Amino acid sequence: MTWPTPAVGNMPVRLITRQVLEHTFHASMGWKQAFDGHHLSMLTWLSIDLANTEHLIAQSDLPLLLQENRFEDRDRRPISTRALGNSLGLDVETVRRCASRLVDRGYCERLADGLIVRSDAYERDEIRIASEGALEELSSLFRALEYWAPRSEIGWPPVVQSRPWDDKINSSGLFSRIITLLFMQFIVRFGVEMQSAFDRNVITSDVFLCVFTANYRPLLRNNELNFKYATWDTPPPAALREPISIRGIARRLNTAVETTRRHVARLGELGLIEKQGGGFVVSSEAIARPSFVKVVGDINASLLLMLRRMERVAAAQAGED
Prior knowledge:
Layout: H1 13-33, H2 39-58, H3 62-68, H4 81-88, H5 92-104, E1 109-111, E2 114-116, H6 125-152, H7 158-162, H8 174-196, H9 202-215, H10 217-220, H11 223-228, H12 246-253, H13 257-269, E3 273-276, E4 279-282, H14 284-287, H15 290-317
Antiparallel strand pairs: 1-2, 3-4
């Protein structure tokens, strides 16, 4: 077999994108369940937690923090509603409503200088389950990347092969929690980029991703086909994509059928999906659109950033930082 030339950043773009979307979609759906399926509540809570702790993850004494196995609440930096809206690309009132909902349910607190997620939030069953599911999806993604690396000359960092959290997948240890945060930071960034392509409509974005990931399951199950259609100049024909019905989309997203139908119709009017058999597939023309190509480029950049940060945390855990 002749391997195609990687297209962007020394990666076979379509192949990597399919793997990333598949596992991040499932991780995101798992996190949504922790917030009763409310996507904006999930993004808001994760963004608050990330803003509270990002400076701690970046600081030079990370090995000591990992040894102590905790982030002290007093060291967390609150984030204002306005700054949160800017980071998510949403208006302040929308974020304020989501934040108030989270505060009322005890997921975070409102202090004088902003919002904060306390460490004990991770002891809630729904957060613990979502964290465990995210790490399992991350491990599955890394196993896929490790499989394809020798075939595409990708120099993945050692954290991809070692997956040092695999023997302790839980949300109680600080190391596993930081890895989870970095993965969810990637998902939040990706979600914001995807929503920008759909006029900031979360449900429309979710429906598109649901159709996309469902369509490409046949390729993910067939390594030869997956690599055959790995680059931009080898788009998979529509016949290879697995259609998904409106009811199937509604089940996967846990949304009402009529709501799902409206967003499917909108995507159809935009030429992003089309009817095939008893369901819908993402159109070939949609995948080639500049807006989608931009999102894919952003996925590549965010993925590499996440890997570099995870490698640093893994080195700190091993006492090498």
